[in-house]
Each structure stands twice: as structure tokens, then as C-alpha cells.
Amino acid sequence: MKKQVDAAVETNSVLQGDYYQIVLAAPDLAATVQPGQFVHIRLPGFEHRVLRRPFSVCDADTETGTLTVVYKVVGEGTAHLARVVAGSQVNVLGPLGIGFSRPSIDSRPVIVAGGYGCAATYLLARISALPPVCLLGGRSAGDILLVDRFEALGCDVRVSTDDGSQGHRGRVTELLEPALAGEGPFGPVYACGPNPMLRAVSAIMLTRGEDAEVSLDHVMCCGVGACFACVVRLKADTHDGWKYVRTCLNGPVFKASDICWDT
User: Fold this and answer.
1) What is the CATH number of the domain that holds 184?
2) In total, how many domains does the chain have?
3) Would 170 be classed as within a structural domain?
4) pLDDT cut 90: percent of the chain above it
5) Residue 176: which region, alpha, beta or left (left: phi > 0; alpha: psi -120 to 50)?
6) For the whole model, what pTM was predicted?
7) What is residue 76's predicted lDDT score, i.e. its pLDDT?
8) I need a labelling partner for 238 at 20 to 30 A (CA). Which of 60, 151, 158, 191 fits?
9) Do residue 79 and residue 154 come from a single domain?
10) Closest by CA position to 176, among listed 256, 100, 251
11) Phi and psi angles of residue 164, each rounded to the nearest 5 degrees, phi first
12) Taking the CB of residue 75, how many other CB atoms lie within 10 A of it?
């Protein structure tokens, strides 16, 4: 059940490059959030902007009652968030959306993450019974996040960058087939990142006769299903063969096979 809380900022610091990490004291949210869910944050001193900002949850610690969010400074809102100091309070609404299913205890999960998706899948890796195979991709080395933290969990981390500045030169999806060809069993396959990457993951899994869970990278406004700005087409037993659903309510995680990728 979502709650609205005033959370104290414990730390807010540079993670690397334009990426920041903010740690919030929010025990109620930390106790209930699931991997893949997100929160909506109202920025202090920025109340003249009507809409909150949506952020995926990187980690949640029930012992300390803290919630960790990793974000990239890309505009006025996130630039303002980067200036928020420890001891300040931010109003947080969450947890929101439907996250990833809980990993199996009998097979090894595979996580495919692109850019910010590296941070958005960390909690999923941490709660997995078996350390996942983590395929982390980005445009360059500066976009590969939390490698040391994934490795500390015992994950098999494999990196790909578009420019070859770290790991394999090419798309992260090029690492998926070789990973699944290893000694398994593997599954589920989870993916979080840019939509073209998610589409490629879906196509690969379809050729294998398997599915994946993907977290869509979709613009959100209200975050609670009121504005219909984040609709996506899903396959359905209707006259047209599809229906609109709201990413913020019915997602952001969906089965890859349910999505109408051609629209």
C-alpha cells in the first residue's frame, strides 16, 4: 500500500559523473517496497512545480529504515535534487507500480541492465536466493553503475559499452545468448533500460521460446494512474488485438511477450 511520508535526507552525494545517490530515512517505505517499484518525490523549494519526479528504488534496508535512489542529473528538477543537503526533508509517495517477480530458488536469474537500469535492478540482485548473472551495459564506462556492489553480492558481472571503453564493445544484449548458453539452469530473465534494449531482449527470448520481465522506460507524470500520460499497448483478446494500460499502475514491469513492440 502506498504512503506519503516526509523523509529526512541522510546523504546526497555524487556516485560517479552525473549520477548521484540519495539515501532517505523512510522506514515504512523500506519495509514494503519491492524490486522494480518506484517512488514519486516532491522536491523541497520546488513546490511551484505541480508534478513530482518518479525515481526507481535502488535499495531498501529494513534494518536502518533507509531507501536509496540513484539518479542522473538531466534537467532542472534533478539538478535541484542534487543540491538538496543532508538533514533536509523531501516528501515521498510510494511504493508505486508493479515490480519484478521474486527470483526462483532453483535457477539462477539473469539481469540485463542498460545505463540507469544498473541501479534500478540492484535490489533485485540483492534479494535473489542465487547470485544472478548481471549483464550491465551503457554508452561508455561512465554509464556502468554499481559493478563493485553487484560483485560483492557474488554476481557474475559482465559489462558491455557502445564505445568499448569498458568490457565488450557493442550492445549489452549481445551478451545475453552466451550467458544463457552457460551451465544453468537460468531464469527468470529480467531487463531494465532503454526501450530499444528491452525490445531486443524480448526478440532474443522469443526465438528461444521463453519470456522475460521488462521494466519499461516510459515518461510518467502523475504516477498514480490519473493522467493517462504513460499508456502502453498490451496484447489482448479484443477486436483490435490490443488494449491500453497505464505503465504507472499496471507496470512498469511487464512480461515481454505481452507488449505490442511494433506500435
Assistant:
1) 3.40.50.80
2) 2
3) yes
4) 84
5) alpha
6) 0.95
7) 87
8) 191
9) no
10) 256
11) 75, 15
12) 9
